[in-house]
Amino acid sequence: MRISVLGLGYVGCVSAACLASMGHEVIGVDVNQVKVDLVNDGKAPVVEERIGELIAEVVRTGALRATGDVREAIAGSEVSLVCVGTPSEPNGSLCTTYLERVTEQIGAALAARSEHGGRSGRHTVVFRSTMLPGTCLNLLVPILEKSVGGTAGVDVGVAVNPEFLREGTSVRDFFDPPKTVIGELDRASGEVVAALYEGLPGAVFRVPIPTAEAIKYADNAFHGLKIGFANELGAVCQALGVDSHQVMDVFLADRKLNISPAYLRPGFAFGGSCLPKDLRSLVHAARRADVSVPILAHVLPSNADHLQRAVDLVERTGKRRVGLFGLSFKPGTDDLRESPLVELAEVLFGKGYDLRIHDANVSLSRLLGANREYIETRLPHLAQLLADSVDEVLEHAEVCLVGTRDPAVLSALPHGGGPVIVDLIRLPDAEARRAEPGYVGLAW
Question: Which of 83, 95, 136, 274 is catalytic?
C-alpha cells in the first residue's frame, strides 16, 4: 500500500519505518523540517533500538521518504496514519489541538486532490494517536467531513488503530505485538487497516471506534496500577522486614487468580470475610510503619463508591418499591459477612425504600454463628424483607436489582416491560436488553 504517516515522533517514526520494511511505500510527514531532513538522509529522528539501521535501509531502497507537505503526502497515498501527539493540558485534560489541525489538513488535501482529478479510490484515515473515547466520532469525524465535503464511511474511510509500543523496544513490539486493535467506522475501513499488518503475529480485534479508543487507556491505567501496587507492597514489606521480591515471585507464579482474567470483569462491589478485612489490616500496618500507600488505602473507598453507584441508579428511577435478587457475597453460598448486597439492602432500607429480597441460598432459620450475628447487626429486619420466591419479588417491585446469576431468577426476568431492571452483574442477555426501555446496567 501507499501510506502517509503524519507525525514523526516515536510512534510515527517507528510505524513508518516498520511498514516500509514490510513492503509498503511510505511517506512520512512532519512540521519539523529537521525531522524531515534526518529521515531523508536515512537517519532516525528518535533514539530507539534498531530504528537507525531500519530507517537507513528503507530510505536507501526508496520505500520511505519524508516531506513537510501534507497535500503532497495525501496525493501520493491511499492510507493516512495519524500519529501526532496528544499531550496533557495544564489541568490534566487531553490536548487535541494537533489532532484537529492535521485532520483538517488531511480533509483539505483530499478535497483538493478530488478537484484536480488526483488518485482515484477511497482514502482511509487511520488515527493511531491516543485519544479518549468519543474523540474520533464526535470531534474528528465532523472536522474531516466538513473539510472533505463528504461522508465518513462512504466518501472517506475512518478507523482508530491504537499502538502498543514501548519506548526502547518499539521496533520489536511492532513486529511482535501483544494484539492488534482496529476500531472501524465501517467494514471496508477495517479491512484496509487489517491489510497493513497482514502476516504479523498476535490476535486481531475489530471493534467499534470508541472501544478501540478506550482499550489504550485500559492498558496504560492498568500498567500504572501494577507498578504502583508493586512499589507500595514493596515499601510495606521492607518496613515489616520481609523480602518483597520473594513475595512477588510467589505472587506472580499464581496464574489462576493473580496473573489471569480473574477479578478483571466489571461488575458489582466486592465483599466477603477476607478481602475487606485483609486490606484494612495491611493499610493499618503500613500506617503504623509510617509508610504511605495511597493506592492500597483507596481500594476500599473505591469499592464503597461503586456500591453507591447502584444506590444512585435506584434513586434516579424515582420509584419506591424495590426488589433485590441475591444477598450472599458470592453465588452458591449463604455467607453474608461483609456482602456488598447486604450493605446495598441496608442503605436502601435506611432510605425508606419498600424492599423485598430473594436469595435461594439464604434462609434466616439456617443462618448460624458469625454469619447470623453479622446479619442481625447489619440488617435486623431481614426476616420481614426476605421473599420465598422470585415471583413474589417481581410482583412487588417497581425496580429490580439483579445481583445473582441464579437460573431461576434469570429465566423469570421480564423483557421490554414490567419493573425497571438494574443490572449489577452484566446479565447474559445484557446486549439485547440495552435496547429495551427500563434496563440500566452498572457493569456495561
Answer: 274
**417 closest CA partner among 398, 396, 442, 391:** 398
Give the list of residues 6+ apart from residue 161 with CB closer than 8 angstroms, or none: 81, 126, 127, 128, 180, 181, 182, 183, 193, 212
- Cα Rg of the chain, angstroms: 28
Question: How far is residue 82's CA from residue 98's CA, in Å, rounded to a whole number?
Answer: 10
Residues 6+ apart with CB under 8 A from 172: 49, 50
Beta pairing, strands 156-160 & 179-184: antiparallel
CB 43 within 8 A of CB 13: no
Alpha carbon separation from 361 to 130, 388, 389, 421 (Å, rounded) = 47, 11, 12, 22
Give CA angle at 403 (398, 409), nearest 5°.
Answer: 70
- Is position 274 annotated as part of the catalytic site? yes
400 DSSP β-pair partners: 323, 421
In percent, how much of the chain has pLDDT > 90? Answer: 82
pLDDT of 155 reads 94
| Region 108-112 average pLDDT | 94
Residue 126 · residue 212 · CB < 8 Å: no
Q: How far apart are CA 335 and CA 337, in angstroms?
A: 6
Mean pLDDT, rounded, for 72-85: 96
Backbone angles phi, psi at 354, to 5 degrees: -85, 100
Residue indicated by cell numbers 532516525: 44
